[in-house]
User: Fold this.
Amino acid sequence: MDKLNKNQIRDLLPHREPMLLIDELFDIKKLSSATALVKVRKDSFFVQGHFPGSPVMPGVLIVESFGQAAAALTADGIDKSTYENKLVFLMGVEKARFRNPVIPDCDLILKIEAIRSHGRVWKYKGEAFVNDKKMADAVWSATIVDRK
Assistant:
């Protein structure tokens, strides 16, 4: 499948509202790369407190969005029995740069790529854009673990 909507992403990930940040995953190249859409809106849960009067999407939520997009890309590409009753945990963020503030109302576009995998450990890189302007980039790793 080349495109996943929010309901299909929800079927792949354990995240639920308000923490399910990815609205769509498209341009999917199996276990290799994808593009994700995060609709950053004035009523997004973090806007009220970060920062009142001058809302900005927190950098940590941009990194979380990268992670969710990567987890959906991976889950979509592997056999369901591999991730069923399992969770994907962020292991480390090697690099994260926040170049410009992400201000609501905008569509945050995440371009992610799987760099390598070794067993249950995966490494990814990504870039975030608003209107073709780079907002952030990161390199991170994650692992698939039992849900216990």
Q: What stands out?
A: The helical segments are 6-12, 59-77, 80-83. DSSP finds three helices and seven strands in the chain. The longest strand covers residues 133-146.
